[in-house]
Amino acid sequence: MPTRRLDVGAEAAGERLDAFLAGPLGSRSRAQRLIEAGAVRVDGGVRPKNHRLGGGERLEVDETDPAPVEPAPVDLKVAYEDDAVLVVDKPAGVVVHGGAGITGPTLVDALSGRIAGGPDPQRPGVVHRLDRDTSGLLVMARTEEAYEALGRAMARRAVEREYLALVEGIPPARAGLIDAPIGRDRRTRTQMSTDTDAPREARTRFAVQRTFGKVAALLRVTLETGRTHQVRVHLQAIGHPVAGDPEYGTAGRFGLGRQFLHAHRLAFAHPLTAERVELTSPLPDDLLRALRGLGP
């Protein structure tokens, strides 16, 4: 096993171990994999990825990467892929990455070896998420450089994300802006809400695309911010919850087995070339069946 030796200069004092090794090892995610595998020693001892360097240490790195994890079997469609980014058309029922209470294969598991970048080795390349039962387009990074560029684009709201949502009832306006801070619900801690002790800025725009009598409307929804459950919470807050939503609406409404929410369009500047990438995803069959049940 090849061992690489690196001396930490005084200028690196205070830097995290994984951040220091990101340059020499090619990416922060690779550095973290090696650290967590016990392949990195600081002055002869194993340290965690968030260990702060003091300057003057000798690092030893066994550079043979841990055996790659076999991709998990998840039925998914890749809408776009190159050396820097990968856009997935995520099916409903798939969680983006693991966490507390998560069982079964995740999207990250299914893309093992194809995505990279970011500070957390448990969710490499993940720059934004979709809920388990929300389908549609999701962009992921394949390199550290792409991850950082996409993260900056998200922060300045330069990634366009448009959803199709069927809601209960008909909004009073054909279009509108919902500007209401969101945070953890005061009473139900597993839900998000506008009734919260920890509000964070949240803005959602909507436009009515089609109505079905007085019982439902199909909306085009765009995000100006990206809070957890934002679309679902904001539409509930104006009295028109997403149809079929078991947490913020009525489970099973219009025969739906999940919330009618689909990430329909995604557009962004390519993180390396700056060329515009714009993709759309058609409604999946289960959502189309619900629309047909409402009328021609």
Low-confidence stretches: none
Which fold name is given in CATH as the topology of the largest domain?
Answer: Pseudouridine synthase
Helical content stands at: 10-25%
Q: On the 0-100 scale, what is the average pLDDT? A: 89
CATH homologous superfamily grouping of the largest domain: Pseudouridine synthase
Structurally, the number of domains stands at 2
- Return the structural class: alpha+beta
CATH architecture tag of the largest domain:
2-Layer Sandwich
Overall geometry comes to elongated
What is the C-alpha radius of gyration, as a whole number of Å? Answer: 22 Å
Terminal residue distance? 66 Å
Broad CATH class of the largest domain = Alpha Beta
For the secondary structure, the number of strands is 15
Determine the strand fraction and express it as a percent band. Answer: 25-35%
Helical segment tally?
6
N-to-C SSE string, H for helix and E for strand: EHHEEEEEHEHEEEEEEHEEH
Summarize the main sheet: 9 strands, mixed
Key phrases:
18% helix, 9-stranded mixed β-sheet, Structural Genomics Hypothetical 15.5 Kd Protein In mrcA-pckA Intergenic Region, Chain A, Pseudouridine synthase, single chain, 2 domains, elongated, alpha+beta, 296 residues
Account of the protein in words:
It is built from 6 helices and 15 strands. By secondary structure, the chain is of the alpha+beta class. It has 2 domains: 3-62, Structural Genomics Hypothetical 15.5 Kd Protein In mrcA-pckA Intergenic Region, Chain A (Roll); 77-294, Pseudouridine synthase (2-Layer Sandwich), CATH 3.30.2350.10. The strands form 3 sheets. Strands 5, 6, 7, 8, 9, 12, 13, 14 and 15 form a 9-stranded mixed beta sheet that branches. It has a 4-stranded antiparallel beta sheet with strand order 1-4-2-3. Helix 1 crosses helix 2. The longest helix has 12 residues, at 144-155. The mean pLDDT is 89.
